[in-house]
Amino acid sequence: MGAGVRPGMSLAHARALLPLGGVQVELFTPERDGASLRALAQWALRFSPLAAPDPPDGLLVDISGCQQLFRGERRLVSQLARAVERLGFTARLAVAPSFGCAWGVARFGGEGLTIVAEGGAREAISSLPVESLRLDEGTCLALHEIGVWRAGEALAMPRASIPARFGPGLLLRLDQALGRAPETIEPMRPVEPMRPVEPVRVERVFDGPTARLEAIEVTVRDLLTAMAKELARRGSGAMRIDIELTRVDSEPVRLAVILGRASRSVHHLWALLGPRIERVNMGFGVEGIAMTASRTGRLRHEQAECWRTGREGGTDDAALWELVDTFANRFGPERVARAEPVATHIPERAFRMCPMLARRARAGEKPGGGLAPWDRPSLLLDSPEPVRVIAVTPDGPLSRVQWRGGEHRIVTCTGPERLSPEWWRAGPDERHATRDYFKVQDEEGRWLWVYRELEGNRWFVHGVWE
User: Fold this and answer.
1) What is the bridge-based pairing of β-strands 113-115 and 93-95?
2) CA atoms lying within 13 Å on the CB side of residue 153
3) Range 112-126 average pLDDT
4) What are phi and psi of 172, to 5 degrees?
C-alpha cells in the first residue's frame, strides 16, 4: 500500500508502481482463500468460544460475555486487532449490538476500530450507504432509482410499503441491523462454527509438597517425555511450552519456553528448561507441575537411519534452530534477530532486523520482496561518511579520495548509478536527496562505494567491498 497500490487496480498499473523484481503475482483461488478463512476463524476462538467465517473476507465473532475475561470490551477488541496485525493482515473491526450493524460499520464506517453502544445501532448505520445493509445488487439498484442512497433514508421509509415494492428481504435486513430480528452465527452461512483443538497438557500432583530439586527435575523430564509421545501421535511439535509449578505458600511459578521451529525432542526441550528450573524459588515446597504445549506446529516424519550421511537440510538445520532457541530463551527472543531483505532501492532501507522466533512468512511468500539484482558492497556503513574527492570532470570519474585522514589515489572508477528518492513516501523525514553512486578501487586494491548528492554536491563513502 505504501507504493500506491490499491484494490481494483489493473495488474499493469500495480507493476509500474512497484520496484523492479519486487512483484509476486499469484492466481486467485477461492478454495484456498476459503480454507484460510476457516483457519483464521479457528484461530479467533482464543477470544470467543463462537466464531465463524463470513466469506469472502470476514469473520463473525460472538463476544457476548467474553469482555469480563479481558477486563473490558475495548481491551478485548484492541488485543484482537493487534493479534490480527501480527499475523500480517490489515483488518477493520466493529463491535455492535447486532451482527448486521457490526457488518455494515466494519466495511463502510470511517474508523478502523468502532464500538457501537447499546441502543446506538440506528445512529451508527444511518450515514452509511444502503450496501451496508447486506442487500443484493438488485435491491440496491431499486433503492437508488428512487433516490435512496443511505441506510438512514431506507429506515425512514414507511414499513408497510417496503415488502410490496422491494420484497421481504429489505425489511428483514433493516430489522437485523437494528437488532429487532434475532440473528445468530449458524443460520448466516452454511458453515459450522469452528471448534477448538485441545492443546497437549500433562501434569503431575505430588503426594506432598517437595523442595528437592532432583525430584522436580525428574518430574519435568517425565512430563516432557509424555508430551513428546502425544505430540508424535498428533504429528506435530511444540513451538511454545508453558509450565506452572504450584507452591504451597505463595503464587504459582510460571515459565515459558519459545521455539523457532516445532520440536518434540526431549533432549532439546530439557536443555532449554533445565537452567530455568534450577533458578526457581521452591518456597516451602511444590505441590504439582502442569505443562501445556500452548502453540504447536506440524512436524514431518523422518526416516530413521542407522548411519548419518551428512544429508543437507537435515541435522545441520535442526542444530541451527536448537542454537537459536538456546540464545533466544537465555537472552530474550527480541535480541536474536536476522536481516530480512526489503523491496526498496534505497541502500540503508534494503534490510530490516526481525526476531528469529517471529512467525515465518506463509508458504509461497517472499519475505520483503527478495534481494535487488544489483552489485552492492558486503559492508554498508551505519552512516555515510563525508569525504573530499578530486574528479576529472564534475560528474566523474574520480581520481583521488580523502577519507579517514588519508588520501587515496583511485585506479578504477565505474558509474555513476543514479538512485532517486522514493516519491511515494510522504513526510519530510522520508525525503532523500538524489544520489550518483560510483564503485571505485584505490591503489591498495580496496573497493569503495562513493556517492554524490546532487542537491548539495557533497560526497560520501557508503560501503566497502571486503
Assistant:
1) parallel
2) 12
3) 91
4) -65, -45
Backbone angles phi, psi at 72, to 5 degrees: 125, 150
Alpha-carbon distance of 369 to 340, in angstroms, equals: 10
User: Given the C-alpha cell 554524490, which residue does it identify?
Assistant: 452
Q: Among positive and negative, which fits the CA dihedral 14, 15, 18, 23? A: positive
Neighbours of 144 (CB within 10 A): 12
Q: With 0-12 CB in 10 A as exposed, 13-18 as middle and 19+ as buried, what is 221?
A: middle
Using alpha carbons, select from 308, 304, 321 the residue that is nearest to residue 269.
321
pLDDT value at 224 more than 90? yes
Q: Alpha carbon 108 to chain centroid distance? A: 24
CB 85 within 8 A of CB 63: no
Neighbours of 202 (CB within 10 A): 18
As given in the structure block, the three cell numbers for residue 235 are 504429528
The pLDDT confidence band at residue 189, using thresholds 50, 70 and 90, is very low
Query: Which residues is 389 bridged to in the sheet?
Result: 401
Q: Is the pLDDT of residue 310 over 60?
A: no
Helix H, strand E, coil C: the string for the chain is: CCCCCCCCCCHHHHHHHCCCCCCCCCCCCHHHHHHHHHHHHHHHHHCCCCEEEECCCEEEECCCCHHHHHCCHHHHHHHHHHHHHHCCCCCCEEECCCHHHHHHHHHHCCCCEEECCCCCHHHHHHCCEHHHHCCCHHHHHHHHHCCCCEHHHHHCCCHHHHHHHHCHHHHHHHHHHHCCCCCCHHHHCCCCCCCCCCCEEEEEEEEEEECCHHHHHHHHHHHHHHHHHHHHHHCEEEEEEEEEEEECCCCCEEEEEEEEEEECCHHHHHHHHHHHHHCCCCCCCEEEEEEEEEEEEECCCCCCCCCCCCCCCCHHHHHHHHHHHHHHHHHCHHHCEEEEECCCCCHHHCEEEEECCCCCCCCCCCHHHCCCCCCCCCEEEEEEEEEEEEECCCCCCEEEEEECCEEEEEEEEEEEEEECCCCCCCCHHHCCCCEEEEEEEECCCCEEEEEEECCCCEEEEEEEEC
Residue-level pLDDT at 364: 38
Asked if 165 contacts 192 with a C-beta cutoff of 8 angstroms, the reply is no
The cell numbers describing 366, all together, are 517472499
Q: Which three cell numbers stand for residue 314?
A: 537435515
CB distance 206 to 266 below 8 Å = no
Is there a contact between 409 and 397 (Cβ–Cβ < 8 Å)? no
